[in-house]
Records
---
Amino acid sequence: MYRENILDHYKHPRNRGKIEHADSSAHDLNPLCGDEITYYLKFESGKVSEIKFEGSACAICLASASMLTEEVKDKKLEEARTYGKEALLSTVGIDPGPTRLKCALLPLKVFKLALYKHLGKKITEEDEKLV
Amino acid sequence: MLNPEKIRADFPILSRKFKGKRLAYLDNAATTQKPVQVLQAMDEFYRNHNANPHRGAYTLISEATDLYESARRNIAHFIGAKPEEVIFTRNATESLNLVAFVACQEAKPGARILLTQMEHHSNIVPWQLAAKRLRLKIRYAKMRSNGTLCMEDMPKEFEGEPFIFSFTHVSNVLGTINNAAKLIRLARKAGSLVCIDAAQSVPHMPVDVRELGCDFLAFSGHKMLGPAGIGVLYMRKELQETLPPFLGGGDMIKSVSFEESEWNSPPYKYEAGTPNVAGAVGLSAAVDYLKTAGMQKIAAHEQKLADYCRKELSHLPKIRFHGPRNGAGIVSFNIGRIHAHDVGQFADEDGIAIRTGHHCAQPLMKLLGEPATARASFYLYNTQEEADKLAASMKRAAKTLG
Ligand SMILES: Cc1ncc(COP(=O)(O)O)c(C=O)c1O
């Protein structure tokens, strides 16, 4: 479970911190284990131009949150919107098993919350399948 | 002294291998494993004696009734109660809901309930439900940062003259053993009824309800080698006669007409519907097993393992223990900034089962300032070697993630 790439992102998280005057942000937690993630986003020319996160969570969740920032940065809004769990899990590169799946996917959920807030759209059932 | 290696031979699951390693089961505060004696007793009931007790005249019924009632007598004797004071429920949670429901029923709006800050959700939420329904007030007696109740402040907590005081005998998160005798004296002085959540005490140490002098005491079978789905509520007989019923249905009535019903006598008044006879039989076999091992010896064995485990873990840099040192067989900890989930995952990869999370005590976790902790909890079949295994695994976790 704790492979090189996970430990690397856990110990040296990319894009960790806060963006003052972010265009959008969102926060959520996993009540069962207390994992917490916040994303801050900035947009420019229809793209995710900047993304940072803060959080207190387990290694799987933090590594996934860090990898997600690299994945979606500079993506067009539509690409970011359709970025789904298969893509994230294959980047994370492990099968977290049923008990840790929520840890790995919490960042994606929070990112989507922030993105949809910016788009001014409601998350539909179709969109939910992506997270 | 207990011989855990010999005891282990009675527990089939403990010889299972996980990832090639012998299972070290250190989550006994959540639930316990079952010896063959319990499995056989239940199997024998369903194979040869199954019938619906108290409901007819044929031989099987009298066999099932005898087994059910002798289980009740055995369990009552184990906790120093009269048989009619032992009410079978599903678990400690249902027992506590029963108490909260019937004891609050006649309380006036504004009447007070006293709990403590170290309760399990199952000794908080039922009271909150009753408080909301009947407009009662709940107060939580304070806990110190070392995980013990502020005994000096306790007389003050009783100043509002709560009509009932419900507290945990042993904390499932911290292992704190509360001074029940002293707490009950204070409660009596204030004229309060006393309810004890004994989910973590009855399985692990000698408990005698007469000696304690409580009104209600709740525990679960599955936490003491018995099956899931059977629990106990001890309720003083006089209270059973005066308090209203909980669930209505078959067996809890003496007579029913279309207009009204008359309640059955204790304890049947509180046992509505077909009971879990196999569960009671299994729990009775578990009680026999525990009695043979000896409750004093079990308590001493667990305490020794917990002390040893704490000592071995204390070599880790940045380890934080929660709860007092002289507690029950529970070791609750965090290592630096490493999330408890990761700690639990490392243990799992080494074939060790420990609990990680908030342990159904979110208000307490908030006081501790930890979103989650890791917890090792011991029982009669655990060994020093298992504590060593845990320490080695935690060392690896600290090195990799610290
Ligand atoms: C202190 C305490 N009270 C109550 C309970 C509830 O037990 P059950 O889930 O068996 O009803 C537990 C179990 O975790 C506990 O540790």
Note: The CA atoms of residues 318 and 336 of chain B lie 5 Å apart.
---
Amino acid sequence: MTTDTAVRDFHPRAHAALNNPQIRANFRKAMDGLMSKRQQAFEGWALDTLREQGAKARLRALAKLPELLEQLETQLTANGIQVHWAESPDEACRIIREICEARGAKSVIKGKSMVSEEMHLNAYLEAHGIEALESDLGEYIVQMAEETPSHIIMPAIHKNTGEISELMHHKTGTQRSQDVEYLTASARQQLREKFMRADVGLSGVNFAVAETGTLCLVENEGNGRMTTTVPPCHIAVTGIEKVVEKLEDITPLLALLPRSATGQHITTYVNMISGPRQPEERDGPEAVHLVLLDNGRSDIYQDDELLDTLRCIRCGACMNHCPVYTRVGGHTYGTTYPGPIGKILMPHLIGLDEGRHLPSASSLCGACGEVCPVKIPIPKLLVRLRREAVDGDQLHPSQMSGHGVKRQRFEVMIWQSWAWLNQHPRLYRLATRITTRLRKLQPHRLGAWTRYRTAPRLAPKTLHEQMSERQRGKPLAEVKR
Amino acid sequence: MKTETAQTPVKIYPPKPDKVYFYGTCLIDLFYPDAGMAGIQLLEREGIEVIFPEGQTCCGQPAYSSGYHDQARSVAASQLNLFPEAWPIVVPSGSCGGMMRQHYPDLFADTPQSSQANAIAARTWELTDFLLHVCHIQLKDLGEPTTVAMHTSCSARREMGVAEVGPQLLSQLANVTLVEQARAAECCGFGGTFAIRHPEISAAMVSDKADSLVDTGATRFVTTDCGCLMNIHGHAEQSHKPIQGEHILSFLWQRTGEAHS
Ligand code: SF4
């Protein structure tokens, strides 16, 4: 199983993924489809305006996060939802186990929740004798394969239909088939039985509304609705940043989320959970809990720039559009959250030390920032984390834990020499001039560059030289080659 | 393909000036001076006097993107004084243009040079954008019929917001057919030090980019940035893929060359 502590093996995993034609094809096909669906879904929308609204709603919430969290707790409690605070994943796991134990619960059915992945909850519960079963189809497949999600919205996107069919046949005896409908129906049937028997349903949360004490949960398979209504107890887990101020803030976010994620105009289910079953109601859980996890988020909150990381609504659009993610797939990152959002979030959750390879694994092409529905300046945050990693700014000393972990004396020296040369124009001109004169001696091999490319060829005369000759009155024809 | 611009502020083009500063960039200086000369001559043909500050070296972008902001700032600071007059600064690169226009304000925030950096950012223009929208250039094609593809760099596209400019300039050339490759907006995998730190991923990206350019049937592509050019052209050359690249400015100048005025 991949865990967050294995991030350091990024390069070998990237190598393996790049050389696995099946992985390459699965991701390319899936990401191409998602990108074009997203584009279609926003046709006719004033997307910039909508993204601006989405960003504003999130920014407003983050600006008064502490107050909103207090308000949320008050409202939820008034609605009969019990609120628990967890500083670390371990603490969150323990809270959930205690709720289960107090009820004598032996089985938990789970809707999709990335925060529970962040907590490695399944393994924890299993270790304490509580069965945890994923009911989201993608998660169900991933669990069956004893893997982790490779995408935050589509956990099993790394597998094609054939691979899924083979897995289901092997594990559950389902007949082999290329028919997605058939495979889905078969999985559903097995899951239905589990739903009926489960003692606890566990879900994530997309937005927690402070004003009304409402938990909003979107999903497509109905498993979220079942998770939150069929078992006698529902536990929701989420990060502390998921709070929004008012119900109306959800409007732009709900327009953005499914379109950005899967190109859908709306998800099949939008659940608004506002409390346990009331005496006059015929269904719903008798107890509802919300576990709010910090896990480094309040540290991010202290920094005005890094704070933008917390705007994320977990749509996955940044990974769908990421040329690196598309090539290496989600498992290469070795983190709960892969792709661009993972690169800017994980260093805070696991430390810059563990996550040191993440910020550099980007060409800074900006595709992620361009599509992010809440306008997170992802490339800028990547540069910020690179700066933290090399402790590269004495004007703004690094603050993150693990800062300076990549600072190496040799590299610093190279950049210092580079800076020195470029601050002395005469020397720069002399050096470049000499370099071009020696171009016949230019090495053909330049390490990693020439493994896949020829070396760029030095010009006979630099632009500086050509311009100064020109100014001294040499005719242009001579200046040109 | 229409793409939304994430952080690009609204551009207000200035009226056509008498003079501009030309900021050549270090890659052009060393490897592609002809593209720089082409850009200068295109400007001059539009009746603009080009000032080439002798003290120019590098905009600081490589260090900035790598996180070495102290070094980036000291190099960038040495460039700030090169542009004393209020003339526009034109840059034949989306990447260096993006550094000056988008990142100088951040880099110099809280420093005494802050307002100077902001002023320079505001009058920095990517050269093709400047030719089209400030000079309102009209190109007269003198070349033989040919087909080209175009790769707009990610910084030109997303930081400078000029994705439409190159195709529009090329469409002015009567004998040039522009073909579009699949996934035109996808990065070529250069990314400066990314190509060195993550060579295999970068190679996978440039290989796909070269393939999609070859698939258009064109044997030549033009681009706004020397980084992409070095990357894609160099990869195609090394792996014998039948496509060659050049800077869009060189191409425009050759097609409309000396005889035209
Ligand atoms: S960072 Fe933006 S694009 Fe990526 S998952 Fe979060 S909201 Fe979506």
Note: Chain A touches chain B through 77 residues (CB under 8 Å).
